Amino acid sequence: MKTGLITSDTYQNHNTGNGHPEKIDRVTAVIDNFKKLNNKNLIWKKPSNFDQSILIKTHSSEYINQVNQSFPKNGFTFLDGDTVVSPGSKEAIKDAVGSIITAIDGVQKKEFKNAFCAVRPPGHHAEKNKAMGFCIYNNVAVGANYLIEKYKYKKIAIIDFDVHHGNGTQDIFYNNEKVLYISTHQYPYYPGSGSEKEKGKFNNIFNIPLEAGTNAEKYLNAYEHVLNKIKEFKPEFLLFSAGFDAHIDDPLAQLGLKSDDFYEITKRTLEFSKAFCNGKVVSILEGGYDLKALQNSSKRHVDALIEFN
User: Fold this and answer.
1) How large is the greatest C-alpha to C-alpha distance in the chain, in angstroms?
2) Which residue from 277, 273, 270, 288 is spatially nearest to 161, judged by alpha carbons?
3) Which residue, 92, 169, 89, 86, is CA-closest to 132?
4) How much is the pLDDT for 7?
5) Are the C-beta atoms of residues 186 and 161 closer than 8 Å to each other?
6) 251, exposed or middle or buried, with CB in 10 Å at 0-12, 13-18, 19+?
7) Cα separation, 273 vs 255, whole angstroms
8) 205 has which bridge partners?
């Protein structure tokens, strides 16, 4: 079976203004690279529409209403100091959420073995009641709740290897025994959360804080703890919050991974988890702000997804 690549042109409508690191070029760089490579093992698919009620499991109705009313006729609206929306953001936000729904449905219906969603805006900083850190809706959290509601899964693991801690995902699932949230991240760093002491009500939060300057060898050694936690939890479905800003060239952080390390991370996780989730894996783009590093790292991540088929 092949790997799904879920994306849509609407990401181009989410204009964050000149000089903003979360810019349109990020997804363009990723998608253009995959188009150029023309890998026959990829199935390209656009996100489908979904019922807005799906969002209610993840975000409060007050917050959803706030977002719906935030889109300006022209110019920009700020949902927080970093998080900008423009008139076209509405479509991009909808398709970012829709992509993970489409990816999950595709895996469930065996259209493809696993999937990668190349979308923006990212999601893992968005909490139940607020936007934060470039993120508006928490795409990966919506996906996890969709797996629980629609497909009745009881054990979902979210692995977040973005360089920033996914405070929003942690916030949403802190008291949910069906979801294991694991994060490797630079610490102390934005957004300030993610200490080892934050464990969740059911010991379902597992943070691995890493100091600035951590190199690939130290990172991969630390990642063994992720794999052990996966083995202990035995997830039925695995979701990646795939941020590539732990790359050594990324301007927004100070970890030392290379593009090939993301292949290694993905490959090890897939091999380790196949006994529990039979390869049911969906990945969604989070951060990554050096375009060349993002392009190469996302390719290596997807290489591992394809090889696992």
Assistant:
1) 51
2) 288
3) 169
4) 98
5) no
6) exposed
7) 26
8) 181
Listed in sequence order, the residues at least 6 apart from 76 whose beta carbon sits closer than 8 Å to its beta carbon are: 15, 16, 17, 84, 85, 86
Burial class (CB in 10 A: 0-12, 13-18, 19+), 240: buried
Q: Is a pLDDT exceeding 80 seen at residue 309?
A: no
Triad 174, 49, 109: Cα angle to 5° = 75
Q: CB–CB of 100/114 below 8 Å?
A: no
Contact 83, 130 (CB under 8 A): no
Amino acid identity, residue 241?
A: S
Beta strands in 133-245 (DSSP E): 156-160, 179-186, 205-210, 237-242
Asked about 247 being catalytic, the answer comes back as no
The encoded tokens of residue 240 equal 């990646």
Catalytic residue among 59, 124, 125, 301: 125
Q: What pLDDT, on the 0 to 100 scale, is given for residue 13? A: 98
What are the percentages of helix, strand and coil residues in the chain, rounded to 5?
A: 40, 15, 45
**pTM of the predicted protein model:** 0.98
Domains of the chain: 3-307 (3.40.800.20)
Q: What is the pLDDT of residues 121-147, one digit of tens each?
A: 999 999 999 999 999 999 999 999 999
Q: Are 275 and 7 in contact (CB under 8 A)?
A: no
Cis omega (within 30 of 0) for bond into 72: no
